[in-house]
Amino acid sequence: MCHFIEGKNVTLGVTGGIAAYKSIELLRLLTKAGARVRVIMTENACWFVGPGTFQALSGQPVCTSVFEEGDAAIRHIDWAQSTDLAVIAPATANCIGKLAGGIADDALSTYMLAVTAPVVVCPAMNTNMYQHPSVQRNLEILRGYGNILVDPDAGQLACGTVGPGRLPEPEFIMEKIAAVMAPDDFAGRTILVTAGPTREAIDPVRFISNPSSGKMGFAIARAARQRGATVILVSGPVDLPDPVDVAVHRVTSAQEMHDCVLQLFGDADIVIKTAAVSDYRPSSPAEHKIKKSAAKMTLEVEKTRDILAEIGQQKGKRLVIGFAAETRDLKNNATQKLKAKNLDLIVGNLIGAAGSGFAGDTNRVTFFYPDGMAEPMEVMTKDKAAHCLLDRIAALKTTVP
Ligand SMILES: Cc1cc2nc3c(=O)[nH]c(=O)nc-3n(C[C@H](O)[C@H](O)[C@H](O)COP(=O)(O)O)c2cc1C
Known about the structure:
By secondary structure, the chain is an alpha/beta fold. It folds into two domains: 9-181, 3-Layer(aba) Sandwich (Rossmann fold), CATH 3.40.50; 190-280 and 296-397, Rossmann fold (3-Layer(aba) Sandwich). The protein contains 14 helices and 21 strands. The strands form six sheets. It has an eight-stranded mixed beta sheet, sandwiched between helices. It starts with 8 loop residues before the first strand and ends with a helix.
């Protein structure tokens, strides 16, 4: 999710394609992100999904005709003037043709000529229709008008055809919308983000790890991508899908994380290390499963390599940002870590505090700066915390060449 969508007026255009049902979920995600959504449906879209569903979920009347009974305002003009973003999902071949040709013969096409806000068009149709030269030409025309096109997925379509034409999942469309709404302040920058825990093998079936979910790091990777950065994400084992348009490297152990990060670090301008890397690992992991016995067992551990410290030493002009998850004395522990590892900023959070910590969707962070300043934040979603962090980094980056 992206807090740049919060409070914005979004118009969702729905046309008569089989994927119209997916726009219900898109509407739900948009309203969950805090957008005020108004829906315009074509007459044919109403054959696939009832306007009542969109009305109930958006809390607004759905526009299906230019000529609404008892409507004093000229709705398509009113809505167009107060729109921050228009998205058409799914966009039929017919609708795309009308947009490209400047035809205004129903509520949606008329509105689309009047709107000046950014427009996101998500084509979805049978593969042969999608690949037809006239549709491709019309899409090119829309691109030329500055519309943002979300390419359809390839796969098995509802009509049985295999090929491109399927409407991408609503979560994917949301990321594209977020990228349109967010500022482009990290364009041209490469950000390396680490996330998740590591696993240190005791034997082939057991390991030492921690409860890091990777949610904070993934939120930062998504937010950085939305703001125009090229993003590399190195993640330990987590149960999260790859963020859209991010190069994801999955690793398991601290050593693998070290090797991967050190190899990729040269390409980055900014490194943000949220991963909860194990400080110790068993000295000699057993080759086979250790059997239970009556005897007491002592596990000998050795230190893993300190990735953050190594990066801090070699950082040159890069900005390096660390995270400190502590159970007590946050300020002292975080500022010590910031100095010891030569960081530009450290994000501290108290594990166990309300709304803060590993697996949840919210976090309560404090930013600690090299000059000793501390900036405590309220509890907020990890997505919002990610953007707040990027706002701070954007301010730092202006002072760093
Ligand atoms: C079952 C069914 C599924 C359809 N699916 C699509 C589709 O996915 N994409 C598309 O461009 N047209 C599809 N069509 C054709 C459109 O409904 C038709 O071109 C219609 O004129 C589009 O109207 P609209 O653009 O005003 O909504 C489908 C038609 C039917 C009967």
